Amino acid sequence: MFEVATGKELAHLLHKSPVRALAFSTDGHNLATGSDDWTARVFDLTSQKEVARFTLDSVVNAVVFSPDARYLATGTANRNHSVGVSDVAGQRQLWHMNHEDVVNTVAFSPDGRYVASGSDDGRVRVWEAAAGQERLPGFPQEYPIVAVAFSPKGTYLATGSEDKTARVYEFPTAKEVSHLIHGGSVDTLMFSSDGRYLATGSYDHTARVLEIESGNEVSRAVLDWPVRSINFASDGLHLSVTAAPSPGINVSITTHFLHATDLIADACSRVTRNLTHEVWKQYVGTYVPYEDLPKRAVGIALTSQFRRIFVSD
């Protein structure tokens, strides 16, 4: 575990095999891990000691805490392809149910009543967290589901799939209300705190933002590597994006503006000269073409699709 501001290592927590999944509790006091050693573990971050361990039926692909941090949901690969919920304090699994293939992702609803799971079997299923009764029998998609997320009020459920599409469904009706098409598998999702936007990250090296009501893409960032995780900043104005050629290797973490108007305002306050090709690529990226200009830029405007920047002198 590292400190974000400085990159300083704060803790080194061990499994016997590679760790596939991580999740903080909402209060930031605990960290859950899932590993190839078939265990899910919970660590107290103050003492850096293991406080709970659950030995499951296979490799642990996914872990997530309930909103009150009392329970831990898990998803496993191979063998039984199970999704389950465990009591952290009691250190016992309360229930588990099976998919027909590897479980890639799990998410609690904001009220803690439901657990959603997504699998290589192409199904999203929703379970009652207390007893494991299936609330929504998996509404099928043709390709593996690799990410699921509930909106903050629990009115929407979003999915990311290897079919290159992020979809937003009403919950609990399962009616599709919006979708966003990427150029690769959609591997990570997060709703904004007000539930108006869905941020998506893809193997196509882009992070995008979908406005749910209109169905429009309102922001896009192009990275050098596939996007592994995406998060809205607490100010609601920025996205934190993690990209890497493969999980855990050459990881880069960058911050991007959510709204183009904020990007324009920031650019106008900073630009005092024409940018070189190298500086343009570093701060603007390759998605917007570079054009030489004869004079210093003092005014900037973006097209609605963010494909051109117009500059006045």
Task: Describe the secondary structure blueprint for this structure.
Elements (H helix, E strand, L loop, with lengths): L18 E6 L5 E6 L3 E6 L4 E7 L4 E6 L5 E6 L5 E6 L4 E7 L4 E6 L5 E6 L3 E6 L5 E7 L4 E6 L5 E6 L3 E6 L5 E6 L4 E6 L5 E6 L3 E6 L4 E7 L4 E6 L5 E6 L8 E6 L2 H11 L6 H7 L15 E4 L6 E4 L1
Proportion in β-strands: over 45%
- Cα gyration radius (Å): 21 Å
Q: Enumerate the spans where pLDDT stays under 50 for 5 or more consecutive residues.
A: 296-313
Mean pLDDT: 86
Total beta strands? 25
Please trace the helix and strand order, writing H or E for each element. Answer: EEEEEEEEEEEEEEEEEEEEEEEHHEE
CATH superfamily of the largest domain: YVTN repeat-like/Quinoprotein amine dehydrogenase
At CATH level 2, the architecture of the largest domain is 7 Propeller
For the biggest sheet, the summary is: 4 strands, antiparallel
Q: Could you tell me the CATH topology label of the largest domain.
A: Methylamine Dehydrogenase, Chain H
Distance between the termini: 47 Å
Strand order of the largest sheet: 1-2-3-4
Number of helices: 2
Shape summary: globular
Task: List the domain count as a whole number.
Answer: 2
CATH class of the largest domain: Mainly Beta
Q: Helicity, in percent? A: under 10%
Short summary:
The protein has 313 residues and is mostly beta strands.
Describe this entry's structure for a reader.
- Helices cover 6% and strands 48% of the residues.
- The chain has 313 residues and is mostly beta strands.
- The protein has two domains: 19-259, YVTN repeat-like/Quinoprotein amine dehydrogenase (Methylamine Dehydrogenase, Chain H); 263-312, no CATH class.
- It has a four-stranded antiparallel beta sheet, with no helix packed on it. A four-stranded antiparallel beta sheet has the order 5-6-7-8, with no helix packed on it.
- Strand 13 and strand 14 form a beta hairpin.
- The protein is globular and about 65 Å long.
- It starts with 18 loop residues before the first strand and ends with a strand.
